[in-house]
Write a structure and sequence with these properties.
The protein is 31% helix and 28% strand. By secondary structure, the chain is α+β, with helices and mostly antiparallel strands. The protein folds into three domains: 102 residues, Rossmann fold (3-Layer(aba) Sandwich), CATH 3.40.50.20; 110 residues, D-amino Acid Aminotransferase, Chain A, domain 1 (2-Layer Sandwich), CATH 3.30.470.20; 63 residues, Dna Ligase, domain 1 (2-Layer Sandwich), CATH 3.30.1490.20. The strands form four sheets. Strands 12, 13, 14, 15, 16 and 17 form a six-stranded antiparallel sheet that branches. A five-stranded mixed sheet has the order 4-3-2-1-7. The two termini are 16 Å apart.
Length: 324
Amino acid sequence: MKKNIAIIMGGYSSEKDISIKSGNVVFKHLNKSRYQAFRVHILKDKWIAFDEENTAYPIQKNDFSFVKDGNSITFDCVFNAIHGNPGENGMFLSYLELLHIPHTSAPFYQMALTFNKRDTLSVVKEYGIKTAISIYLNKGDAIDTDKIIQKVGLPCFIKPNNAGSSYGISKAYNKAEIAQGIQTAYKEDDAILIESFLNGTEVSVGVITYNNQIKVLPITEIVSENDFFDYEAKYQGKSQEITPARITETQKNRVAAEAEKVYSILNMSGFTRSEFIFVNDEPYFLEINTVPGMTEESILPQQAAAAGISLESLFGNAIETALN
């Protein structure tokens, strides 16, 4: 008998449209002989399930079910394709866990932790993972640009603490740009990080649980046409994503080991993609994405393809891992 799978997508953040693209790719590639998949849009004003004929059904929030042809449809597993709030920050997953519905992401606490850039960095630093120098600010805190420059130097990066897809991120070269970057970041979140600039090769490392083992995927080198790997570079073709990365065997081994270590330290499961920059052959950890993009052009699917893993196998494995 086919398993009923809800592919949740959308969400409440700026990443809503990107998430829907990812969710539709998952729907397209799931094995239809094994799974009865439904696209479930989680939006601020409504939750809606769509079947293969695009018929819409309102979701009942008390038990995450819907009624089709007089029958109540419940889900055996949820595939999480929500980038940002409430899928990547653990909020929706805590709801699923209360209902005892398996899902393809890490447990809600791990997701909440890793969505918070400051807290993630605080944890991994204790295990010897190298990171950039950083300053943390809450909205309303006094801003002393001279002290910021004294600690992190110029140029520096200003980032929302809880946001993805490079929304709200800017690179500042002077005091005026720091002030402007802070205001831009606060539009996405009430807490921000200001980090020192690391000059080196940027790479993205996918780490997943595959066939019940932690697996590091082939590494991707990021070459942005813009000043850094911003939204335009990520989603509008303004970058090269080279898999496998053009790095030395020493660099490859070091960053693969660090990425696997981060995955284990943070008690991850399911999909992750960690970002690093090499400084003198040493990988410095930037952040971890726990609901990475899942379109055919996205980095993690590219890495899976380089490892000989089809999207059908990649997505099906995530569901089977969650069910087991």
